[in-house]
């Protein structure tokens, strides 16, 4: 009797294990219950496979968390789990879910730094994004540069304008650090290939000039021409006399207009008063502006004035420049009044 009972018990256990094994095999072959095309699943820092299995179960994606734990153990995935947000798609099998969670292919959220922005605009964009840390809030420029390992350096212009992708919860400093490293790389590459004989002693001086070029024109074709004017002025010892530097020096005092008193104001950035370059960049220059600063167009032009359509009129002499300025002011006056010299309405 005892032997028979043991045999029946053994057969029962064997049947149970066989059933579990068959159920486990079905689990491996059956897609997880994701009904949407794509869902987001987050693995928080410090989580293990138990928390992952429970999370997938809670969301109804799997019904056997212990099978998932067994699969991770069989595969040797114990210490390979990555933190972050992952995209899971309908039709994925459990092993494919594990592959995704150990791949490190976390969701990247974009942030764009625009060419011509100031450093503070870049910081504001990070804080407004909502997906990154708020560690930049209330921090001074000096504190931020110190935290980035650049104590004593001015932040303006040192962060490359581009679109970057970062995982959720990346710190604001982490975002800035990548843009800082990218600018270092781009500036070093462009400096290494610079034209000969430039009146620029260091890459930083090139960065300053590039930031001015960036603010002076948004037309790609004009950047080398603008650079040529400024480089010739530097060689001749002429003042740069560029409005964007004046505006930068005015800071929050700029109300949209530059007045005669502003052009006479003694600020470190007033290039109508100071000789040479201002002490720092005035904006984030893009690669095209940096390249233009280091490859200025040849020519004799020493002046330029806006045409009113985004472009500029370039002149080699002061007489030519003054004539171009008068023509610009006349057009501006006509546009303001809405009538030409014959009294015909020219507004569109």
Structural summary, described in words:
By secondary structure, this protein is mainly alpha-helical. The chain is 48% helix and 8% strand. The chain has helices at 2-29, 49-58, 65-75, 94-103, 119-129, 141-147, 172-192, 203-216, 223-236, 243-250, 260-264, 287-294, 318-337, and strands at residues 38-43, 84-89, 109-112, 163-166, 303-306, 312-315. A hairpin with a 5-residue loop joins strand 5 (303-306) and strand 6 (312-315).
Q: How much helical structure, as a percent, in the residues?
A: 40-55%
How large, in whole angstroms, is the Cα Rg? 32 Å
Question: Which secondary-structure class do the elements indicate?
Answer: mainly alpha
Low-confidence stretches: 339-348
Could you give the count of β-strands?
6
What about the largest sheet? 2 strands, antiparallel
Give the strand content. 5-15%
Tally of helical segments:
13
